[in-house]
């Protein structure tokens, strides 16, 4: 049982490429209509305003942004909202209980 020579793989024009890396694949209209940097700015602003007194109204708005990810194939908005909440809770550890409450909601 010796080793057989195997030809190296060749890249072809119609090879499979993950959609997240394939810039030629158009996004669905729902993903085109929500600029990612806009979502990021708005969620950051809402997290900066989040207090226990304003928790219900502001947390509802943050969850609304996270729910916009329903129409996405890759869930990038949801992942970004989660990342921003995690980052904020690490930066402001004295408010981590409030951020945990937000995650639970």
From TrEMBL:
It comes from the Eukaryota. The keyword Protein biosynthesis applies. InterPro entries: ARM-type_fold (IPR016024), MIF4G-like_typ-3 (IPR003890). GO terms for molecular function: mRNA binding; translation initiation factor activity. Keywords: Initiation factor, Protein biosynthesis. SUPFAM superfamilies: ARM repeat. Residues 40-105 form the MIF4G domain. GO terms for cellular component: eukaryotic translation initiation factor 4F complex. Pfam families: MIF4G. The keyword Lipid biosynthesis does not apply. Gene3D superfamilies: 1.25.40.180. Belongs to the eukaryotic initiation factor 4G family. This is MIF4G domain-containing protein.
């Amino acid at each position: 049982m010796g080793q057989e020579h195997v030809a190296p793989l060749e890249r072809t024009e119609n090879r499979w490429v993950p959609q997240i890396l394939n810039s030629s694949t158009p996004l669905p209209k729902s993903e085109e209509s929500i600029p990612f940097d806009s979502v990021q700015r708005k969620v950051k602003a809402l997290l900066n305003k989040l207090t226990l007194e304003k928790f219900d109204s502001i947390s509802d708005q943050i969850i609304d942004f996270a729910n916009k990810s329903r129409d996405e194939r890759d869930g990038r908005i949801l992942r970004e909202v989660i990342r921003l909440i995690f980052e904020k809770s690490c930066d402001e550890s004295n408010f981590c209980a409030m951020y945990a409450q937000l995650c639970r909601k």
